[in-house]
């Protein structure tokens, strides 16, 4: 999952604030005085309240930090695995930094999008989410955008193409997301989770085919695709409603939701590349002009134009997965 946005609602009658929060992608609404039933008439949304889906004081605990004893109390709750919302009288990053090491379920009480951005990026890891305390409609929208773009960053590397080989008909998966992508964006896929290509979204048009910027023609059914949290799935397992990660050429990621995944038989290409440090990356992609990899400059390059020596962007890590989770083990994939 990505970072979470919770908006503090002072009254369940604040329809405009609630509606804006919903449209900004909130995970839940916080109602310290209750009123969940009223809020749920507007939309299907989780609430944190005395009468909520998550009970305030039980499932979520608010700790106002005024001194070291308060900080120690928050640390104790985090070690117990509790969801802790930290409030500070003078908002600083110091107590957040100290508490991040104590547990995963830390939320920062913030007043605007700038504070939210700081909270979710502190020490690179950041808090699990934020509780936004404002009635400013524009600030809610800005914070929603900050959270949406606060995906995982990966270190993409340059790799040189070493082989492009037609291999005939295979089953390939085309992923249509419920998001529009821009030039320089795509999904990470590969024959191995240890080496993945940044396959470019179909943002480009040509005389024969219109652009479909919501689509990544991802490759053969056996290949891995990167998901939130560093997880992977086989492309054959992807279905409507799933989350996948979309990355740009700088390695900045965000979550996209799958609208549909189509499996069709198409002529395919085996593409192999190698990084400067000798890591090998391979994938099987459809043999068509509209399928593109991504250059280090963020430009799409069609697979039918690829030749040995061309540079493309890849992601590499040590091999080893168990049900999509990263594990430490000795493994060789060919």
Automatic annotation (TrEMBL):
Residues 12-146 form the 3-dehydroquinate synthase N-terminal domain. Signal peptide: none annotated. Its EC number is 1.4.1.-. InterPro entries: DHQS, DHQS/DOIS_N, DHQS_C. Pfam families: DHQS (PF01959), DHQS_2nd (PF26558). Residues 159-334 form the 3-dehydroquinate synthase C-terminal domain. Keywords: Amino-acid biosynthesis, Aromatic amino acid biosynthesis, NAD, Oxidoreductase. The keyword Amino-acid biosynthesis applies. It comes from the Bacteria. One of its GO terms (molecular function) is NAD binding. The keyword Oxidoreductase applies. GO terms for biological process: amino acid biosynthetic process; aromatic amino acid family biosynthetic process. NCBIfam families: PRK02290.1-5. HAMAP family: Arch_DHQ_synthase. Belongs to the archaeal-type DHQ synthase family. PANTHER family: 3-DEHYDROQUINATE SYNTHASE (PTHR33563:SF1), PTHR33563. This is 3-dehydroquinate synthase homolog. It comes from Desulfurobacterium atlanticum.
């Amino acid at each position: 999952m990505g970072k979470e946005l919770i908006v503090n609602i002072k009254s369940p009658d604040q329809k405009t604030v609630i509606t804006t929060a919903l449209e900004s992608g909130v995970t839940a609404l916080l109602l310290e005085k209750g009123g969940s039933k009223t809020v749920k008439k507007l939309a299907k949304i989780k609430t944190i309240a005395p009468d909520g889906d998550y009970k305030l004081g039980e499932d979520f605990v608010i700790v106002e930090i005024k001194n070291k004893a308060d900080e120690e109390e928050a640390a104790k709750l985090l070690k117990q695995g509790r969801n802790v919302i930290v409030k500070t009288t003078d908002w600083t990053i110091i107590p957040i930094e100290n508490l991040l090491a104590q547990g995963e379920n830390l939320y920062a009480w913030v007043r605007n999008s700038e504070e939210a951005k700081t909270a979710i990026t502190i020490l690179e890891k950041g808090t699990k989410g934020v509780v936004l305390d404002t009635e400013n409609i524009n600030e809610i929208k800005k914070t929603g955008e900050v959270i949406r773009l606060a995906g995982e960053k990966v270190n993409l590397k340059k790799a040189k193409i070493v082989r492009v080989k037609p291999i005939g008909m295979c089953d390939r998966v085309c992923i249509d997301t419920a998001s529009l992508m821009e030039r320089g964006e795509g999904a990470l896929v590969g024959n191995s989770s240890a080496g993945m290509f940044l396959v470019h979204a179909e943002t480009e048009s040509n005389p024969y085919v219109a652009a479909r910027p919501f689509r990544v023609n991802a490759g053969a059914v056996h290949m891995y695709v990167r998901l939130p949290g560093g997880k992977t799935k086989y492309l054959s397992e992807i279905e409507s409603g799933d989350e996948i990660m979309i990355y740009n050429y700088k390695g900045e990621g965000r979550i996209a939701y799958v609208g549909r995944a189509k499996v069709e038989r198409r002529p395919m290409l085996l593409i192999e590349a190698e990084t400067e440090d000798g890591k090998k990356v391979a994938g099987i992609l459809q043999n068509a002009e509209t399928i593109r990899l991504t250059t280090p400059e963020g430009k799409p390059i069609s697979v039918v134009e690829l030749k040995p020596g061309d540079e493309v962007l890849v992601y590499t890590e040590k091999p080893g997965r168990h049900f999509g989770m990263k594990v430490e083990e000795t493994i060789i994939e060919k």
